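During the first year of the project, the team set up a workflow for recording each protein of interest as an amino acid sequence followed immediately by a discrete structure-token representation. This format lets reviewers and collaborators read both layers of information side by side without switching files. As required by the reporting guidelines, we include two representative entries from the current panel. The first entry is reproduced here exactly as it appears in our internal archive.
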Amino acid sequence: MKTFSSIQPPQHFPSTRFHSFTISRTQLHFPAKVFFCQAKSGIDGSLNLKVMATTVLAAEKEEAKAVLTLYLKERGLSNAVAARTINKSDLFIDHLVSKLHSKHKSRYLTGRELTTLEIRDALMSYLESLFEEHGEILVDIVENFPNPPVKEKSHVPMPIPPPSPSVDSKKLKAVSRLSEIDPAAGKLRPHIVYLMELGMDIEQIRSIIRRFPSFAYCSLEGKIKPLVEFFLELGIPEENIPIILTKRPQLCGISLSENLKPTMKFLESLGVDKEQWAKVIYRFPALLTYSRQKLRESVNFLHEMGLSEENIGKVLTRCPTIISYSVEDNLRPTAKYFSSLGVDVGILLFRCPQTFGLSIEAHLKPVTEFFLERGYSLEEIRTMISRYGALYSFSLTENLILKWDFFLTMDYPKSELVKFPQFFGYNLEKRIKPRYAVMKESGVMLLLNQVLSLSSSDFEKALEKKIKKMQGGRSIIFRNEN
């Protein structure tokens, strides 16, 4: 029985091509509860969305559609085939939204919206894992979700890599070791039993082996167990270790004493906080598998942009994924673009390094045009970026435009957004609208910053103070008139 929820993100695949195929019968099982507190999915894939705000879900669905469309095109599908698949994927889109909610429970609890980059990374990783698991029939699974196809299809399939007999044979042999009984112990091989005791299931292990066949041959006592014990010593919770191994199984093929520990020491010399290794490794375990040359290249660029050694260490600790960005393809062109706007690139890199993983043409330029078209000057846009580096990381269509439209009804001057661009980081339905409604009912006006950034108790105190001040002013006027 295949379980989507247990599949973890694989590595990216090389270029692909179309391949003819015949679809065989496949049984799929999806978890009964997929929306964290807000909604549930039944075994038929239908969702109970009553508790969730309609507009919030609609926005998230559009975001999921955009990611799925992009993924299908990256896999080589034409615009027409991708569009047709999207039109048939309503239930699968609901499923993607549920995965998003499950992955980011804490963010929803605090009322903060996910950035476009966070949404893209979460869903792209999940789609990659499905493609690794199901390959060429993924389009059919998307269109027929949650019921897999059971007969042959004639339309264009998902492209898959050219078959390689030697590679396929190696994978099959590695995967077959999962079910082999150890002759000496009379049960599954020791490292498989150990991984299952850690909390991994067979499907997770199988998915790892398909991506990294050598994982099936890793020694328990020589590789896996020492690595796990080392992670535990660093303070990584045991329940997080299966996630780390699934994200980067290559860690089990690296020498702990000759490679992994020296790499960590090298990163500490670059400023990574050694007290934060548990968080760093959980966020981005691939960091420990990059070459010294790649690490130096990224750090040299940060130096070039004016970051101090102390701040470089903080960036690497808070956002280790920046190492994965290509200096020449991502970091430098993005720095050049923001420089053309007059932005201090060093400050932006320090405050929001994730922004440098976004597409200039598809994301950054449209956001700039959005604010220019609404009457903001480049100087005002620079000020907004300097005050809120994450501003460019939000979706234009599903965040900025929606919140701008509501802002126009809020009786604030446009300059208020220059003072407080963080407005775009708050949830429209859960924070902005409710807080504004309470303020309007009170009959007073607070600064936008006060409306959104204060805690509930401080917000109430600010309203009471403003009301008393207004009433005091009216009392003075009344006495003067008499």
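The second entry, processed by the same pipeline in the following quarter, appears below.
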Amino acid sequence: MYPVIDSDNDSEDGRIGGFAKNLKAVTMSSSYLPATTESLDQAQEAKKPSEAISILYRVLENPSSSAEALRIKEKAISNLADLLREENRAEELRSLLTQLRPFFSLIPKAKTAKIVRSIIDAVAKIPNTSDLQISLCKEMVQWTRTEKRTFLRQRVEARLASLLMESKEYSEALALLSSLIKEVRRLDDKLLLVDIELLESKLHFSLRNLPKAKAALTAARTAANAIYVPPDQQGTIDLQSGILHAEEKDYKTAYSYFYEAFEGFNALEDPRAVYSLKYMLLCKIMVSQADDVAGILSSTKVGLQYQGPEVDAMKAVAHAHAQRSLRLFETALRDFKAQLEEDPIVHRHLSSLYDTLLEQNLCRLIEPFSRVEIAHIAELIELPVDHVEKKLSQMILDKKFAGTLDQGAGCLIIFDDPKTDAIYPATLETISNIGKVVDSLYVRSAKIMA
């Protein structure tokens, strides 16, 4: 099945043929190794990763296709993928997946799917390989179409759509998902359907299309209710539900979903638990319950387990909100830029919170005045003059207070709140009632005349 390494060629270029043609050999013999547990142990005992990789490649070169040899090769592939991932050799992982295609014809389709997905996962764990992952998934989609491996193709396409979404290739991802959802619904593969519907919800949310995002999430929940859903997938559903409710300003419901997601991820020791906790704290801050943040973080369940920059960032925001201090707020945004501004979900809500806090502080500062210099307000609030002037003009247009800006003098003139004359609403109500009476009399007269 696989070519035997020729000793002359080996001495000439120092490379292993077949599987190992791209790998420089450190220690090697002139032929493949037997597909036995002893060979795997030899690789495990190797002093250097390159030696272990060389040994595993040579095990895969073994032409034997007995049941035991295939089992050993499967284990060798798993070990080899782990080693290549640890060595950040993404291109070799991609090459390995291509070179294994003859081997896939000898093993069951379910095992093929497991190996393919594990190697793609290994590539994903290597930093800065997004483009390589997309290219690899497209190659595998073409291969699965040729080999008519529908089950595997659908899962690789779902992975490809996720990668395209992360790369902001939204139109291509949406087109791929639309055709995939129709196909999976016909086959009634509910577990895969839940994954795809969830992915569609995230994609529409990224496109700021909330109605479609909610519809896709509802479809995912409906499919999930008919089957057993793994805890990590249930946590993902809860997390997405919380994000959508928070977007609609329903922070109390969002908090309960984030809490459920945190419980699930915490039990699995999933790294997403800290993000669920972060969004829980965000909900508390957004409903002006910043004092509850310290209580949540002091609980035994959270304790020291989730201490880190994500939690510290939310502590800083909670402290700034409790103090009603824009200066502390901006300090938190500057000190924890990666955790706050680079997280699109947190950034969107904190922008709204910052505007609210700025409006409250400005209203409190201008309350004693009827005429005040904008520069003086900017000095009191410790913000640039142009920033304050722009915000004041916006507040006047939004009718947050009555006033006008005298830009020539650089002053803000505040008017007294106009008193509403009660006679106008009463007059309008009277006219409305007279209109109803006239309409009623017209209907009665029409009946009499008939």
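For the second entry, the following points were noted during internal review. The radius of gyration is 32 Å. Residues 255 and 280 are 5 Å apart (CA to CA). Both points are flagged for discussion at the upcoming steering committee meeting.
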